Sequence to fold (591 residues):
Amino acid sequence: MAADKETRMDEAMPPDSRCAVVVRLPVPFVTVYEQHYHAAVRMGYALTGDWQTAERITQQAFVAVHAAWDQVGCQDEPAHALKRAVAERALAKPPRAGPPPLGRLAGVAGGRRQAARAALPEAAMAQADDDDAGFWAAVRRLPKRPAQVAALYYLEGRSVQTVAGILGCGVSVAQAHLDAARAALAAELHVPLDNDKGP
Amino acid sequence: MGAVTLDLLAHRAVEAVEQRSLALGPIPFAADLLAGRRRHRRRRSAALTVAAVALVLVVLRIAPLAPAGSGEHRPGQPDRTMTPVVATPMVVARIPVGDFPASPVVAGDSVWVANRADATVSQVDARSDQVEATVAVGPRPLAVAAGAGAIWVLGANGALTRVDPATDLVKATIPIGEPALGTGSPETSAAAWHAAVAANDRSVWVSDPGAGELVWRVDPGRNAVAGAVRTGHVPVALAASTDAVWAANNDGTLSRIDARSARVTATIRISGGDPPHGELAIAAGAGAVWVSDSHDRLLTRINPSTERVEAPIPLRLRPGGVAATLRGVWVEDQVDGAVTRIDPRLGRAAAALRVVDTPIGALGTAGMTAGADAVWIASPQEGALLRVAPGG
Fold:
């Protein structure tokens, strides 16, 4: 029934106790949208090799999470659901019929680069180099889960916990996928692994 | 020279992607993006829309125009834009205001709306649909209330700004609580977006979701905080009537605060579900207090005399703002960019009107209010205040 309580200014709760209150309110969709759009597109590009495709799947992912924003917006990290949706769409079966044979890889990757360049202004094309092409192409040749883990690991600040949170799996599972992905990438790119597992 | 390692390659690859992404340009407007998925539905309903417009035009030719304010036409006033009497609701004016308008409120013959991105509030003449004044207030004005002879603007910096509606001058800036509203960045925190303000003749009331369970009371005579009332957990929406203030809390309760004693006199459970709840909106009017919950998709009517919940009305939409009129309760649909009039007697929708092409929820709750014979909706996408003729 009645709470019958009033607190005067000088009786208000001390700052420490006020800060301890856990507020569970839906984050405004537009806030997450503005903060994470470009990061989501970058991840989409890393996993598809095409900027236009990356933007398309990012927008599809935003539409999908918006439909469930009542739940997503109240999560600790609403952006995780978005990035998970992008990662899933990027490697969904219909647009990508499985890893191409290695012999055709150069041609396919070259075609994707051309498509990406066509979508970029001249200034950006001039800056674009092949540093990323070989690495991300190798990531895309990995099986689905290790590819997602590797892309997220390097794009999200090298935190396995963050990767696990985004993909909704355990940290040990994410770590196992990451170890396998890094070993495969090192072998394919003919470079040694190092011990730098994060900042 | 160090050897090239996998992590070094990865570092370069990440940098290259970030560099390239800079050339992507500005992100598309969220509302446009979300509107795309309903394009086919709009085409399907185009014929119906044309038919409805034709019907409205016929009605307009038959029915004489009635002035706003129940026919009190004042001689000497400029030619006013009157709210037409129409059979079905329609948008009769789109009034450009500032950037990202939200939280409109009716005060006499004016409608005030916060322009969140402009750090201003606009005063719109409800008779002429013209912007009469634009007043600079604190950064990120979140919510507006009218009462005690003033307009009260709550900013994301935690300050309450008092604007004199007669002179359009800022008369006072009152810091509310410590720390500032919300946790984290005031521009992005959910708590800041859910802060609310309401006013009656005695006091101004400010909810502070960042503080957990407090509604601050401001004395308009001293322009100072007079106290704080503990409510349910996280009050996110406020509505004031003459003798009471109602706080909808995120724990599924509604607190009634007596306006005279500034004490909670009743705590009413309006939702049986576990928190967190969706967005709550509240309106007092038409003899009741109305609370919409976007999570449960319910419109709940509370009888202020008995302080009891009457039959909740299930909604087929995801409610945002709510406004009560004598002809029904208007609810924003966050998903569909439409407003719907709920007939409480029938317990279902009586009329619906698409007011914007985009989901209202894509931009957060822009807010709506009722008064001066119209329903007023803030449209952030257009930077406009929409005047809706409510229909018969």
